[in-house]
Amino acid sequence: MGEGKMKIMKFGGTSVGKAERMHQVSQLITADNEQKIVVLSALSGTTNSLVEISNAMASANKNEAKQFIEKLENHYKEFVKSLLKTDAALESANKVLQEHFEFLYIILKISFSEALNKDILAQGELLSTKLFCIYLTEHNIDHAFLPALEFMTIDSYDEPQVGTIKVKLSQMLKQLGEKKLYITQGYICRNSKGEVDNLKRGGSDYSASLIAAAINASACEIWTDIDGMHNNDPRIVKKTYPIEQLSFDEAAELAYFGAKILHPASIWPAQFYNVPVKLLNTMEPTAKGTLITEKAGSVGAKAIAAKDGITAIRIKSSRMLLAYGFLRKVFEVFEKYRTSIDMVTTSEVAVSVTIDSDVFLKDIIKELEPFGTVEIDSNQTLVSVVGNEIEETKDVMKRLFDSIEPIPVRMVSYGGSKHNVTLLIDRQHKEQTLQLLNTGLFGL
Ligand code: ASP
Ligand code: MG
Question: What domain range is 378 assigned to?
Answer without folding.
Answer: 302-442
